[in-house]
Fold each of these.
Amino acid sequence: MPKVLKCADLMPDCKTVIVGKDADEVFAKAEAHASKVEADANAKLAKKAVEADAKNIKKHVDAAEDKAKADIKTEKVKAEGEANVQKAAAK
């Protein structure tokens, strides 16, 4: 008589049903299934971590670009101010 293991009995979110001719076969299949499920879960977590890192990096790059633009604008205003002072002094 075949042996059956319902993953939902152990992991409610998993609907996999494992069937084997004996307990050893069922456990071997269950181990392989669990390894694949764990690998898939780890891959999803890694993808989320990479996406979060990318967002964080973009945020910092954007902030650096904004600061650089502000610095350029400040230097331009300073240069214009110095030019106006020199013009006024020359009069």
Note: The chain has one domain: 3-90.
Amino acid sequence: MYNFKLRAITSCGMSDFAPLQVQLDTSTTPGVVTEVAVEAMDCAILVKWTGPTKLGGYPVTEYKFELRTNGSEYTSAVLNCTLSQTTCYLPMTTMQAHPYYLTVGQEIAVRITTANQLGWGTPILHSAGYVQSVPSQMPQPLVKVLGAGAARIEWPLLDGLATGNQPVLTYDLVWDGGDANSAVNIRVVDTASNFHVLRDLDINTRYRVAIRAHNQCGYGQFSEVAYVDIRAPPTKMGMVRTGKAQNCGAYFSWLPPSDGGSSLTHYSIEVKDYSGVFTRLPLCG
């Protein structure tokens, strides 16, 4: 605010000041904030800023911090801001919920406005990074029986937004160890590896396995359960002996093969005729 007094000046001198004063008010709303910085935290960000250098002639009375929604509107609802300290803490879960509904990989756009007693100044727009989350649910792992009581458990490595838009820290393979009431966690820290070998498995036990991924935001959902069954088909039959029988005309005898871990349910006997066609015979006992 400036005050002016008027009087006339001639070669003979100066007059008295006029009784009225002229006032010029140069006060304005404040300028934009400065030095906006974004600090990454565990599945969250902390936005900090410095007040405007141009105050407009009055002290700052208020800050308004807003986040752009998925519908491109700006709102300050349910934000955890300490405006007196020019900071705002933004958990990723908050930004993905009502009323923002941002999705993984979407830009986090914020708007900060300063006010003094004359009103709100011009807002400043700033990019605060991109939305992150826990990894997506893993696909069901693939089981490959290796023999000798071992099985290889394989899974596809996550990439793109399936990682939660940040690096995967570990893959967690969980299996029951043959006990339906237990869960053994195997943490695979080599995220470039997509398999793990289970050894010393019991041929008579059926195992369950599942896989999930872990990043800085936490753990993704477990995959569907896959079953590890190292049982195999019966081994090849040995020599079959034949002889004459009173009731069926002939009898066959053999030694049982290895059952591969499962009880044998039945045998199948086929005889090749003169044309080379095999015909299954009924069992006589």
Note: Residues 142-228 form a domain with the Immunoglobulin-like fold (CATH 2.60.40.10).
Amino acid sequence: MGNAVSSLAAKAQRVVSDVLALLHRNNHISLFVPLVNIPMSPDTRPRRYRLRITGTAVQAFKAWDALSKLAEAAAQTYLSIDVVAEQPAGFDQVWVRNAVLEPLKEANIQVEARPEE
């Protein structure tokens, strides 16, 4: 039993050491990229990639080029975007409807919106 625990601890340490963690204080983004190689035969190609991108609006807009390349190479691409916008003075609800919600609906984009405190 002791050897099994030691082996498991060694594997866990290897996995932890193979994870790259980038923390950007001012950008409010944390990126954890696993560097572990999943064994695959040379003929096996992954059929699906799932990405989760977290960052500021500026960073997200910079990611569109890479995402469009992935979408061009894929047979189907689905996006789910969660946006949190904050304004200390509060948002004008008429402006939100006209400038944000209506254009999204006119583009046939499913949108759920809810004002928070």
Note: Residues 8 and 97 are 54 Å apart (CA to CA).
